């Protein structure tokens, strides 16, 4: 499959205080590196998940891809064209082919616009000749399973699930090749979550767009995505096929995240792994492997040496950064694979 989106060594930095304050507080780094050298690709029609605790940099990656945030360095190319180096006007035709579904569906919809105006706004934003607004709104509402008379409603007259459907319809307005869905199920009842996910999956089947999905919900990742990337302090610490990572996580952080996720299999032996302490601040990064302060397997080298990226011997597409990656050994009598430690150093 050819790459639709290719992100290479992306770095995003935020200034957190002015130079005078930095001088006064004695800090030599008045900035925060939210994304540190992230690389990945998404193929046409593929679904990739970005997973990680709050503050790990997921939304910043999404905002940088769609041009709401400048990168410090690195490259973003879409359909073979490097877009970071283009001017605003030159970028527009590429940005039009990507759509973002924001986290808060009602808050992200302008309260004074009717659903009809909201659904046809993308045409106006991108300076495209507007088709018949009524016809277009009805077509988009039909796509997401809402009646045509919803076009007259305002955002506050929508339930959470309906607002999410309108958000999906709006994202589909310009027939994008890539949808970025930031927490598409957040704040919804479980039954409505299922409906929204099924709708996204059906539309993807019908329309063939790629989806970059940002979520804390590992059940969503497991059932909806082809590949997943696990983020920690702005870096990918593991990337690979969703099936392979669920089957055989290599990084202890991934292992802990998966273990904290309720198992759908009632016979599975559920081993919760407590993560020690809080996520460190990206302004005070631990030395060596940045996860070592919370890792139950950490050894001396982990606090000293930043781990290189390695790949899984049975799947070269599965990469991770760990000095002591986990290897699976199925112990008979256990319902669930038991992970043992295999040192590489
Ligand atoms: N505009 C900004 N100015 C300064 N720091 C920022 C800004 N936006 C994000 N950050 C910081 O960048 C880091 C990454 O934030 P980001 O929102 O990308 O994380 P996230 O993984 O998407 O979190 P969440 O799951 O809570 O949305 C955090 O430390 C955050 O505080």
Describe it.
The chain is an alpha/beta fold. The protein has two domains: 3-219, 3-Layer(aba) Sandwich (Rossmann fold); 230-341, no CATH class. The protein has ten helices and 14 strands. The chain has helices at 19-24, 58-65, 88-95, 115-125, 133-143, 160-172, 190-207, 218-224, 242-247, 252-259, and strands at residues 3-15, 31-43, 47-51, 73-78, 81-82, 98-101, 178-182, 210-214, 227-232, 235-241, 310-312, 315-320, 326-329, 338-341. The protein has an eight-stranded mixed beta sheet with strand order 6-7-8-3-9-10-12-11, sandwiched between helices. Strands 2-1-4-5 form a four-stranded antiparallel beta sheet, with helices on one face. Strand 4 (73-78) and strand 5 form a beta hairpin. Helix 4 crosses helix 5, helix 4 packs parallel to helix 6 and helix 6 (160-172) runs parallel beside helix 7 (190-207). The protein is globular and about 65 Å long. The two termini are 35 Å apart. It binds adenosine-5'-triphosphate. Residues 14, 16, 32, 34, 52, 54-60, 282 line the site of adenosine-5'-triphosphate.
């Amino acid at each position: 499959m050819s790459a639709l989106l290719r992100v290479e060594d992306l770095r995003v930095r935020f200034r957190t205080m002015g130079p005078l304050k930095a001088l006064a507080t004695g800090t030599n780094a008045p900035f925060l590196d939210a994304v540190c050298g992230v690389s990945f690709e998404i193929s046409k029609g593929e679904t990739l998940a970005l997973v990680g605790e709050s503050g790990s940099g997921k939304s910043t990656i999404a905002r940088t891809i769609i041009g709401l945030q400048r990168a410090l360095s690195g490259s973003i190319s879409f359909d073979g064209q490097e877009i970071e180096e283009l001017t605003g006007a030159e970028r527009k035709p590429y940005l039009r082919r990507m759509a973002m579904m924001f986290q808060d569906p009602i808050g992200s919809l302008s309260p004074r616009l009717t659903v009809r105006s909201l659904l046809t706004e993308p045409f106006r934003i991108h300076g495209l000749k507007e088709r018949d607004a009524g016809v277009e709104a009805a077509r988009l509402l039909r796509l997401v399973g809402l009646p045509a008379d919803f076009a007259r409603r305002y955002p506050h007259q929508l339930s959470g699930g309906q607002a999410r459907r309108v958000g999906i319809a709006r994202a589909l307005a310009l027939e994008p090749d890539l949808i970025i869905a930031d927490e598409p199920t957040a704040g919804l009842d479980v039954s409505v979550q299922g409906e929204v996910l099924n709708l996204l999956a059906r539309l993807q089947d019908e329309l063939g767009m790629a989806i970059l999905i940002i979520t804390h919900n590992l059940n969503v990742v497991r059932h909806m995505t082809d590949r997943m990337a696990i983020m920690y302090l702005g870096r990918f610490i593991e990337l690979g096929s969703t099936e392979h990572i669920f089957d055989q996580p290599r990084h202890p952080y991934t292992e802990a995240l998966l273990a904290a996720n309720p198992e759908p299999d009632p016979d599975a032996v559920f081993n919760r792994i407590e993560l020690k302490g809080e996520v460190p601040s990206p302004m005070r990064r631990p030395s060596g492997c940045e996860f070592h302060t919370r890792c139950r397997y950490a050894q001396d080298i982990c606090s000293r040496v930043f781990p290189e990226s390695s790949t899984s011997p049975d799947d070269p597409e599965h990469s991770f950064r760990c000095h002591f990656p986990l290897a699976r050994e199925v112990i008979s009598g256990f319902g669930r694979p038991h992970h043992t430690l295999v040192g590489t150093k």
